[in-house]
Design a protein that fits this description.
Order of helices and strands: EHEEHEEEEEEEEHHEEEEEEEEEHE
Distance between the termini: 31 Å
Radius of gyration: 19 Å
Length: 299
């Protein structure tokens, strides 16, 4: 999670929230989705380790330093996450794994690899930097069947276990089948063209916080202000912290509105969270890689 100073954004945020010319986009009927961890069956912890780190591992080094983020599954083989999670660690190739199922004494991961000759990690071509680090802070990660595999282990002992032993401990075959498929893929919320101030999106929002066995839903009833020039949503911080980057900003209507990108480094009172939003360039970027996907455009 990158921390940035957003004092100027906060001023703009509070001004826009009370500006009469700002349009409020609401829905009369809210659906109570993405309220529990079960609703987030499309969101997972994802870890990356660079080729350089692997090569420089010493004999006494038990664990490799990894970049920990989260990702939302868009199809069976494709996940979306924050670009800043991967742009450095995967620049010259990386290994990565997604924790698909985690319990007290069982875990199922899918692991894969991206190399310069066979890239599997793709950044949005207009990825922002410097003061615009959340602009198009979006990356796609592929788990191609030809170079990916499932592994099973005991998270308490880090000992590998067989598939049968994993299924016996899991005792829920439906959960296993869902982990193998593109179950519960979200609808993308695509932002259309707006006047300079941008709209205020008045919906209920939630983000999954996933750390090892602990999965928690972070909820916000605050309005989200969209900044068209930066392609970001700004909300008052409702629990976003380092390690949650890449998690989806979900609405209670079941829409994926953005990707968790950054938080302010200001005081708690003024703490804000930034989410990289989707526009038509993001939709095109996704469709070019994974094909058609369900989406809604706000005009």
């Amino acid at each position: 999670m990158r921390k940035v100073f957003l004092f100027f954004v906060f001023l703009l945020f509070t001004y826009s929230a009370f500006c009469q010319s700002v349009g409020y986009i609401t829905h009369e009927k809210e659906i109570n989705t993405y309220a529990t961890t079960d609703d987030f069956s499309n969101t997972f912890e994802i870890n990356f380790v660079s080729e350089e780190t692997k090569k420089n591992k010493t004999k006494n080094q038990k664990y490799l330093d990894t970049v920990k983020c989260q990702a939302v599954r868009l199809s069976k083989s494709w996940f979306i996450t924050a670009a800043h999670c991967v742009e450095t660690v995967c620049k010259n190739g990386c290994d990565y794994q997604t924790r698909l199922i985690v319990g007290r004494n069982y875990e199922m991961d899918i692991i894969s690899q991206s190399t310069p000759k066979n890239p599997q990690v793709f950044l949005h071509p207009q990825r922002g930097h410097a003061e615009r680090i959340s602009t198009y802070d979006i990356a796609l990660v592929q788990f191609k069947s030809s170079n990916s595999k499932y592994v099973y282990k005991d998270p308490q002992t880090f000992r590998g276990i067989t598939q049968n032993e994993f299924l016996n401990r899991l005792k829920n075959y439906k959960t296993y089948k869902r982990a193998l498929s593109s179950y519960n893929t979200p609808t993308l919320l695509i932002m259309g063209k707006y006047r300079e101030q941008g709209p205020v999106l008045a919906r209920k929002f939630s983000v999954l916080s996933s750390f090892n066995e602990e999965r928690k839903v972070l909820k916000s009833n605050n309005k989200a202000i969209y900044f068209p020039n930066r392609k970001v949503f700004i909300l008052e911080n409702f629990g976003i912290r380092q390690g949650i980057s890449g998690s989806g900003l979900m609405t209670s209507k079941g829409e994926l509105a953005g990707i968790t990108s950054a938080i302010s480094a200001s005081s708690k009172r003024n703490s804000l969270a930034q989410f990289s939003a989707f526009d038509k360039t993001v939709l095109k970027f996704i469709q070019e890689h994974i094909g058609e996907i369900e989406y809604t455009i706000l005009k």
